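hey
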């Protein structure tokens, strides 16, 4: 038990020394993003696209539903043959699939547009964070909103040293591996 206490104490001292030698910062990127005028413009553009796509879908669904009601009335009245009913059911299945496909395309279009409008904003934010970190000597900057690391000074990759210590030999690269 005494050995464990000594080890834990040594780790704590080591960590305390590390933390004191490293300048760290934090921010909440979600709060920052919500304050940018670009975000409001991006959201408005995305909402316009989404509204347009939803209207298109609603029109398609309303047409489908109206045609289906007419079909059911004709079928219930006995005005359609079995073959006509089967053909109409196949048509409705195709139209239903078209609606589902349109929904998928709409979702993809919104995702693509979101990336298109958000990437420049996010890049600008990251550039500002990088500049602030370098100008003010920060080693690490954390995003308290998402729990992610936003900036880290360049570090030395110690993997080769650890491999050597563990006796792991590098495998030659196979042809075609780049």
């Amino acid at each position: 038990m005494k050995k464990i206490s000594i080890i834990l104490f040594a780790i704590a001292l080591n960590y305390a020394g590390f933390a004191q030698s490293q300048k760290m910062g934090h921010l909440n990127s979600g709060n920052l993003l919500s304050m940018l005028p670009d975000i409001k413009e991006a959201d408005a553009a995305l909402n316009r696209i989404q509204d347009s796509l939803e209207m298109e879908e609603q029109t398609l669904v309303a047409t489908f539903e109206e045609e289906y009601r007419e079909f059911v009335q004709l079928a219930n009245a006995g005005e359609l043959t079995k073959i006509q009913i089967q053909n109409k059911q196949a048509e409705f299945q195709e139209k239903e699939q078209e609606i589902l496909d349109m929904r998928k395309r709409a979702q993809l279009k919104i995702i693509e547009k979101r990336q298109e409008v958000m990437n420049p904003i996010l890049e600008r934010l990251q550039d500002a964070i990088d500049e602030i970190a370098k100008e003010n000597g920060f080693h690490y900057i954390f995003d308290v909103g998402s729990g992610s690391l936003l900036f880290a000074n360049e570090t030395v990759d110690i993997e080769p040293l650890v491999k050597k210590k563990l006796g792991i030999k590098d495998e030659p690269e196979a042809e075609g591996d780049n």
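The CA atoms of residues 54 and 131 lie 41 Å apart. The mean pLDDT is 82.
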